[in-house]
Structure formats: structure tokens, C-alpha cells
Design a protein that fits this description.
The structure is a homodimer of 360-residue chains. The first copy, chain A, is an alpha+beta fold and 360 residues long. Chain A folds into three domains: 278 residues, Ribosomal Protein S8, Chain: A, domain 1 (2-Layer Sandwich), CATH 3.30.1370.60; 41 residues, Wheat Germ Agglutinin (Isolectin 2), domain 1 (2-Layer Sandwich), CATH 3.30.60.50; 30 residues, no CATH class. Chain A contains ten helices and twelve strands. In chain A, the strands form three sheets. A seven-stranded mixed β-sheet of chain A has the order 2-3-4-11-5-6-7.
Chain lengths: 360, 360
């Protein structure tokens, strides 16, 4: 499929302008744009500017509040609950992460559960906010139900990602950012474009049978938890996705399990709403609340070099450290621009016309 | 293979006596016994009394200190680092978990990284200590290297388990306790006894090729991270195991990656030791540091019932909630006794003769 490259700066100006046009303050528009485009930079194209029109449609459907009064509704020295007031998750989650970081400065760690929010982009952006403070960052979010637990036909969990970011010294930071499913939805979309089948263990059909159909979600099928089936440990992926739901929504008072609001604005809201909006969980641990940051970072360098120097299995060139692929994408795309597929460019052109914002 | 059932009380008296014979105080012997036997009760036979002789051999090899001076060596309001003084992990981890719980009472959460420890039994025991305090408990530990990261021939991580335990109201607690590998080592041992092959994605051979040989670890092979291979998400299992290593050992100053001391006393210690002993990470989050515990537990009940009422895939009877299988084992074994295979009974008889302790 044809694609066009745009510089980060071009896309930044465009997205920021669109966020302002829907009513975001300058500060919120900048925050949302940085969080959104971090996905494009890091090669997670499904979560970047391709979703800008989706966020706009949620605002049009009055499911996103462009001028939220985000606030702390409960706190202790190391915890807080944040009410996102239905704002963009791209704005609410950085607010909450800043609270976690401030708590960690005082109490050693900070843990913030968030209710009444919306999709927050990639978990990695929020977790990585901790790095410059010599803290370990943690971010997770629940999401609308696409995943069937082990043995279930019904879809009960989202792809519920977890990110942990830890600083190193001379080596780049360790950044593990993963959906708790075998494959994220974006991987299915790539196969759909190629008209290709999925490997075993990615999806099941509407009756709960194993499937290789990359379009199966549109036919009532489900994504499978990391592991794929019981024999390959899917009960572990299911358990991890469940932990994300509990930390993000049960602790905060957000919606959980199959009652999490959908991202596409054309999908009706669940009839039952046991909580408010969607939920996130953000954490920050100050390294020197455990040991001197310099010691930790030297040990991280040693750890990382150990993994990089592993012998590789046949056909592979190198052993990667979590965060390597995304960092390589970012270096390349900052230099050569961010490639957008034609349908995404068309989407941006439509936004350009709607809001009279030039697409540079 | 023939087995004999022993009551919990019989095994308790025996194990407690053996721990005292190697020099543990009454308090430590009781703590270690409870932690050890929780594995037998919960059906995780590989981590229970079958390992008692292994702990004794570590003491004989002077790798376990039966009279450790366990202490906090650094702390902030919500964090601590504990030095286990080479004690049994079965004693050190409950000490650290108590510290985490006390911190959580004051600061909302408590997070304790542990150095200079040994194997701590099942993660579930330690995490579940938080439940009676209306807290969420978290426990993880690193372990000696059996697992090859994605694309690696070399074994760099242990099975590095994670447990998260969250209280519910009328429903039993949610307890997710999982190794970050496709299958734990105990599952291989079951197949070895049956002379059966492993499913795909569990192990690889000494050259890094896929294997189905349940005995492959003895031939230089490796366990694989949850996911099995790259196409099925093994980079996620690898990342999770790495997070466990970082939290448990890089934060505390314990040994990490391939330098974690082995459990079998006959395996030589790694030549290089970048830290002290093995590492754990224990956490406690007070529910009402986020929202009233009653509200949370009512939501957990609703969540759990939602999962239990899912339609099942063909051939399966029910959708389980994490913790269900272990709780069912415990109910049955408390009633009918704990079945021990003949080699385990012989092992206990040898301990009985060595220490002049009656096996009831």
C-alpha cells in the first residue's frame, strides 16, 4: 500500500491544531499531541495519528470532554485516585503520572489509579515520563472487551497493556511495553491488508473454536490472551490482563471487564456501566528509595550488555533488550519522517477540511 | 506412580522439626513450614515438602544460614531494602512482606526489594499475606537461569514468577500466581515421569532449535518465555521475566540474570557474583488508600461473577478465575490429606533417619 512520509514537526503542528479546534487548551493540546505522536515515532502505528479522527469522533459523540477538570479525588502519601472528567486519556494519563512522580519524590513511590478517562495512546509514553527523574515508571490501562479469557467464548477483557520503564546508565533505558494478548489488534490489521491468515493461538471464532482468520473479530470472534490456549499458558495472559483491569478500574471506580466503553464512536456504549469511563494505573518508584541511582544504573548497564551478548538461535542476528525495536524506529523516523498509509493520509485530509487546518 | 497421603498436620510437625534440627529458631521454623506447605496445599507439588531435602542440602553446603540476622538496610516511607543474611527465602520473604504491609498502613503502599536471600517457595503465599489486611499483595522472585530470552541460546533468566492477590467480598480472593515461562519446570517433571513429549513452545535444545523433549534441560536445553516463540509473543514473556529480575535484584543488590545462585546444592555457584544471594520483590497496596475497601470488594464480587458466568468453548465446563484451581486443591487436601509420590516419601524418610525426627 502506498505511503507518504511526514516529518514529526509537520504532524505535530497538525495534530496540535486539531486538538485546539475541538476546544483543548494550548497546554492540553500540546500534551495530547506529544503522547499521540510518541506512538508514530516508536513504530506503533495503530496507536498514533491514525487514531486522531477516532478521538475527534468521540468528542463529536460527546464521549470526550475537551475541557476536563481533572482532579485528585482521594490520596495518601504514596497513592491517589484521579477523576479524568471524561477528558482525553492522552491528557489525563500524563496528569496522573505527574502526580505519581511527585508522590515518589516524597514517599519513595507513587501509585495513581484513574477513573473517568478515555484511551491514553501507548502505555510506554506515560511510563517513560519517570525516566528523567531516575525513577522506574509503570503504566497500564484497561480497554474495551476484545479478549476471551481461557475457556470462554465471551469477550471480557481489553488488550490491557502493561509498560515498565527502567533507566540505565550508558545503555538506553529498558522499556517493556506489551499487550497482554498473544498479538495486539494492530497486528491483525496488518494481516488483513495482506489478506493473510493469523498464526495459531491469536484468535478464536464466535463459537470459541481456534481460528486463523484475521477478520474474525468482525464475525464475533475474539483475541486470545498471551499464551493462546491453556496448554501454552493462556491462563497466564488472562491473569495478567485481569490484574491490569483490577488495578486500573476496580481500584479507581472506572468501568471494568466487558463494560469498558468502546473506542469507535459508532459502537454503542454498554447498557450497564458499573463505573465511570475507562481506567488507568500509573506508578513511579524512585530508584534511590531503594539504592543509589548510580549503582542501579551501572548494574542495569551490566545486565543489558549480558543480554546483548547472548548467542543467537539459528536464523537470528541478535538478542534484543525490551525497548530496542521502538528506539530503532524512533531514530529512523526522526531522521526520515513518519510513513503514513494512504487511508491515514486521507483521514487527515478530511480533518484538514473539516477544521480548516492545513495539513503541512 | 504410587503415592501416600499425609495430613497437613503430620507434614507440618515433620517439616517444623527438621527446620529446628538445622538450627532455625522456633519462630523461623514455623514461618518456613507454613510457607513451604502452602505449596502442597495449593497443588504446586514441585515447590512444597518435596523440596525440604533440597533446602537441607543448601544448609549443609553453607549456602543457607539457619540463624540469619534479617534487617532493613535502607528505607523511605513507602519502600525498603531488606538484607536476608543468606537465610531461607521461606523466612526472609514473610519478613519483607510484613515490612511492606506496615509501610502500606502508614503510606498507603509498601514496596520491599530483597537481597541476599534464597528460594522462597511459592509467590502466592507471600502475596496472600496482604489479603487479611484488606490490601492487594504482590510477590515476585528471581531464580537460577533456565530460560532463554527470545532469539537466545543462552539461559539468562529464571522462571521468575509473579503473584498478585486481591481481596473480594463474598467471593474468594483473586490470586494470580504464574511463572513467566510457557510452562514451569514442575510441568516438565510430570511429563518426564510419563515419558511423554512436551507441546510446542515449551522448550528448545542446546542449539536453540524448537524441541519437544521433556528431558532437554539435562541436555543443555532451555525453557522458553511465556508465548514460546516470537510469533506467539515470547518477547512479552521475556520482558515480564526481565521486569521480575530488575525489581527483585537490580533494585536490591542481589544477583541477577545468569548469575543467580542455583537451587540444587550440587550445582556450583556462578563464578561471577555481581550481587548478594537471590532477590525478591514484595508489595502491599492498602485498598482504602484508593477507595473504601467495601466498595472495592463489592466490585470484585461483581467482576468475579461476570467471569464465572461466561459461556464456555467446546469441551470445557467452566471459566475459572485466577486462584480457583489452587483453592480447590486446598479444600480437597485439607480434607483428604496431601498425596506424596514414593520418591518424595523416601526423601522424607531419609531426613527422618538423618535428624532422628519421626515421620508421623
Amino acid at each position: 500500500m502506498a505511503e507518504t512520509r511526514f516529518s514529526y514537526e509537520q504532524l505535530y503542528l497538525f495534530a496540535e491544531s486539531v486538538f485546539k479546534k475541538i476546544g483543548c487548551s494550548s497546554e492540553h493540546a500540546a500534551t495530547a499531541t506529544k503522547a499521540l505522536l510518541s506512538a508514530d515515532l516508536r513504530g506503533i502505528d495503530s496507536h498514533g495519528i491514525a487514531r486522531l479522527s477516532g478521538y475527534v469522533r468521540l468528542w463529536e459523540a460527546k464521549r470526550v470532554n475537551a475541557t476536563p477538570g481533572i482532579k485528585i479525588i482521594h490520596e495518601t502519601p504514596s497513592t491517589a485516585v484521579v477523576d479524568g472528567d471524561s477528558g482525553l486519556g492522552l491528557v489525563v494519563a500524563p496528569f496522573a503520572m505527574k502526580v505519581a512522580i511527585e508522590k515518589a519524590k516524597q514517599a519513595g513511590t507513587g501509585w495513581v489509579s484513574v477513573q473517568h478517562s478515555n484511551h491514553f495512546g501507548i502505555a510506554g509514553y506515560h511510563a517513560m515520563m519517570a525516566l528523567e527523574h531516575d525513577m522506574i515508571g509503570l503504566a497500564m490501562t484497561n480497554a474495551s472487551p476484545l479478549v476471551a479469557p481461557t475457556f470462554s467464548i465471551d469477550k471480557m477483557l481489553g488488550t490491557n497493556p502493561i509498560c515498565v520503564a527502567a533507566p540505565a546508565g550508558n545503555e538506553p533505558a529498558f522499556v517493556a511495553d506489551l499487550a497482554t494478548t498473544t498479538a495486539a489488534n494492530g497486528k491483525l490489521e496488518i494481516l488483513q491488508r495482506k489478506n493473510a491468515d493469523t498464526p495459531a493461538g491469536w484468535v478464536q471464532d464466535a463459537e470459541g473454536n481456534p481460528s486463523n482468520d484475521a477478520n474474525i473479530l468482525k464475525k464475533g470472534g475474539a483475541l486470545l490472551p498471551l499464551g493462546g490456549d491453556r496448554e501454552h499458558g493462556s491462563h497466564k495472559g488472562y491473569a495478567l490482563g485481569a490484574v491490569v483491569d483490577i488495578f486500573s478500574a476496580l481500584l479507581s471506580g472506572a468501568n471494568y471487564a466487558p463494560w469498558v466503553p468502546p473506542f469507535p464512536a459508532y459502537v454503542p456504549m454498554p447498557a450497564q456501566q458499573p463505573g465511570k469511563g475507562i481506567g488507568h494505573f500509573l506508578g513511579a518508584m524512585r530508584i534511590d528509595a531503594f539504592r543509589p541511582a548510580g549503582e542501579f544504573k551501572a548494574a542495569m548497564d551490566h545486565w543489558i550488555r549480558g543480554f546483548r551478548s547472548c548467542r543467537t538461535i539459528p536464523g537470528e542476528e541478535k538478542v534484543l533488550v525490551p525497548g530496542d525495536p521502538e528506539r530503532e524506529y524512533e531514530a529512523e523516523r526522526r531522521m526520515n519522517g513518519i510513513p503514513l498509509l494512504d487511508p491515514v493520509v486521507k483521514d487527515l485530509q478530511a480533518l484538514s477540511e473539516k477544521f480548516l487546518v492545513e495539513l503541512p
